[in-house]
Amino acid sequence: MLALAFVATLGLGACDVTDLSPRNQLSETAIFTDPARVALAVNGVYNAAQSGFYDPLNGTALAVRGYPFGAASMALGDARGEDVSDMAGFFGLVFQNQITPAAPNLVNIWSNCYSVINQANVTIAGVRQAAASGIISAADAAVYEGELRFLRALSHHELVINFSRPYTDNNGSNPGVPYRDVPVNTIAGVEAARSQGRGTVAEVYTKMLADLDFAETNLPNTRTITGATSPSVTRATKGAAIALKQRLRLHQGEWALAVTEGNKLITGTTTFTSPIGGYALAATQRAAFPGGTAVSAENIFSVENSAQDNPGVNGAVANVFGSSATPANGGINGRALLAVSPGLYNAPFFTCNDLRRTQMMQQDGVRTAYVLRKYTDAATSSDFAPIIRYAEVILNQAEALARTGTNNTLALSLLNAVRNRSVTTAADQYAPGSLAGAALVRAILNERRIEFVGEGKRWGDISRLSPDATFGPGGVPAKYNGQVSGQVTLARYACNNPGALATPSVSAVPYSNFLFLWPIPAIEVANNPVLAAQQNPGY
To answer: How many domains are there within the chain?
Structure first.
């Protein structure tokens, strides 16, 4: 949003958009004449991705919150779907499909994603300037630009899946979102942004993929931090760029191209590892989430949080998803804002002996619901936000192979690599050769719902699959609302017992309904007459 997204191009302070030399910021000229300050400018873009700002839109001050990727994109990505229940009304408008152009959640996703994008664009220009002046080496500049273009692509993808129809609807010809790749840090830049239109979904994907091709070419396999004992997962790497490309290809329905990207990160036939970055599945899902700042070889890219720098109790993943009971009563003093939906818990594909029921879920202890145990540090909000895990790469590859029908054996083996670490009972496992075709694709899609709940991926799958006559949900599914009496109670949680469920109080939204998409925020269209004329229908 132009009124907010460009207020702090380098994350060093805030000012009116027309005040291009605020007193509390170093000028860009000064920043990009010193190698250490260049490095800090790049770090600032990661900080913007972690916790830019939250505007309550009611006249009170901006606050720190996990927008866009510190936790907000994950919480909203799940709240838009049916596999969590809203327990406190914190995400009520999103959960109940009652979004308006002034709803704070969508406004802040839009404005913060574009804030990350603009900080990336300003910093790219500065990095190029510093390299041309000999301040930093060409090699360092290429790595920095690779990181920044990765973050730019990640932010644009978050925007396009929320505000545009999926690529698979009419081959990307529907309206996209403005792809901003020029700095908005001058009056001329602001005016240009105020007249930029949406383009098409296909154009957005073309530019994201170009950014990620550059990132793949120029980023190293691993990153290290001085004093750390293991590679950093909070800086973009070659593997992260490839994995994000694989995700984008899945959203395009370009199955063979998704397989091509996955092949760069997957070797093996029953046990899988990555020749780039050394990624591997943890032995159990519990081991993939060691808690707090700890990571495993399954983490490809995460957004860093710490006790000193985090989205706070209103925006941290452990508080959003974790138990509100005290540690003495088995909880973590979280807020349990989003619980596991009884609909997912009772789903027939979620087997009774699946370890994710016990190791990764628990009764809240205060609220009458089951909540997640993926995140552990509600006290200091230090849990990293997992943006890309190796489990996603494996299941992406399984689906892409199953869709092409070229290697059902390998596709099932990839599915089993993720599933069988949690489904250890032989009777519940898929035997080699037992699934193919549509049944195999459906099993993979079901597995994604269990494996990724609480990681924000459900909306992406609902969006990309909704035009699919065979596998799509046909829009936003009906939901169980924890704010409505009797909808979410402990008695509703059972294994494979649909009879225990109530009638969902939140009605489904058909794919054809205008509410399937979020509207461009009112404050954005007020500043950009071109976008005002391109608002999503119905708003």
So the answer is: 1
